[in-house]
Design goal:
Structural class: alpha+beta
CATH superfamily of the largest domain: Pseudouridine synthase
Strand content: 25-35%
Number of strands: 15
Order of helices and strands: EHHEEEEEHEHEEEEEEHHEEH
Number of helices: 7
């Protein structure tokens, strides 16, 4: 049983208990937190509460008991992994496109979790729940780049706390259609589930706050290479945000990257768009930089991984328009 103690700040006073604990633990879902509370695993000022909606007050001391991980029915599957860094507590991986991070109803096996169970010999943190051992944060199936996985609960909670406090450095690069109105900016727009499409997200005033900072680092005739820095980590956040300013990620089949609006309609341009999408093969979004403080050693770590070949080839194809 892992015991965590949190002190409620003045700014956090008045929040629901489940919302407070989600923000403090980072890697735990609201449904899992609510279940823990309902099962008597949370106490406010040493008084056990079973109500996720209870409001916390400034100065309250909240204790959360996280049960030891249960035996999971996930098969280890040996798989070649691009490991950037590894020690006894965590592993940093450069994820390829097409690899699902953790099992879902549509992808029950062949995931990164299956590969990690084989690589780490089942030594992974259980804080995320039985279908997501070790997973602190995730990348979409067709997003490439860096993510960190925890091997023990102390490391997991430490990393999740940095994620929640927005001190973890996460820098992405993306190829997008069109140019934003300003070459750099801050997109502060809440994201929620699209009511018409279960697998899509969208800008929604009732959704959760989401903040992305962007900067154009290369400008093509009707496309851009952007760097995006996350302040929050919502599902599909960058993809939704850049699409909302008219710059969908190239080859993103869910948010307008296959049939971009606003580009010239000439035959030559249509052929180029088709060519770039064919070369890309998947959404052109890559987690290039990841930085955090090691929860156990206290060392400041930062890792960088260059975009994959298809990203570079797609960018090269866009450059030819400028040069012609």
């Amino acid at each position: 049983m892992q015991s965590c103690i949190f002190h409620v700040s003045d700014e956090e006073g008045g929040r629901r208990l489940d919302s407070f604990l989600v923000s403090r633990t980072g890697g735990l879902s609201r449904s899992y937190i609510s279940t823990l509370i309902a099962n008597g695993n949370a106490a406010v000022c040493d008084v056990i509460t079973l109500r996720p909606a209870q409001r916390v007050r400034p100065g309250d001391v909240v204790r959360l008991q996280i049960p030891d991980p249960v035996e999971i029915d996930l098969a280890p599957m040996p798989m070649e992994l691009d490991i950037v860094f590894e020690d006894d507590h965590l592993v940093v991986i450069d994820k390829p496109a097409g690899l699902v991070v953790h099992p879902t109803p549509s992808s029950p096996g062949g995931t990164l979790v299956n590969a990690l169970l084989a690589h780490c010999r089942s030594s992974l943190s259980g804080v995320s729940g039985e279908l997501r051992p070790g997973i602190v944060h995730r990348l979409d199936k067709d997003t490439t780049g860096l993510l960190v996985v925890a091997k023990d609960d102390e490391t997991h909670i430490g990393l999740s706390s940095q994620l929640a406090a927005r001190t973890m450095k996460r820098r992405y690069v993306a190829l997008t259609w069109n140019h934003p109105v300003t070459p750099s900016g801050r997109i502060d727009a809440p994201i929620g589930r699209d009511p018409r499409h279960r697998k899509k997200m969208g800008i929604d005033a009732r959704g959760r706050r989401a903040v992305t900072n962007y900067n154009v680092i290369r400008k093509y005739d009707f496309a851009s290479m952007m760097e995006c820095r996350l302040e929050t980590g919502r599902t599909h956040q960058i993809r939704v945000h850049v699409a909302s300013i008219g710059c969908p990620v190239i080859a993103d089949d869910r948010y307008g990257g296959m049939k971009p609006r606003g580009v010239p309609s000439s035959r030559a341009v249509r052929d180029l768009v088709a060519d770039v999408i064919r070369i890309a093969g998947h959404q052109m979004l890559h987690a290039e930089t990841l930085g955090f403080v090691h929860p156990v050693t206290g060392e400041e770590l930062e890792f960088n991984a260059a975009p994959p070949l298809e990203f570079r080839l797609a960018a090269r194809r866009l450059e030819k328009v400028l040069d012609s």
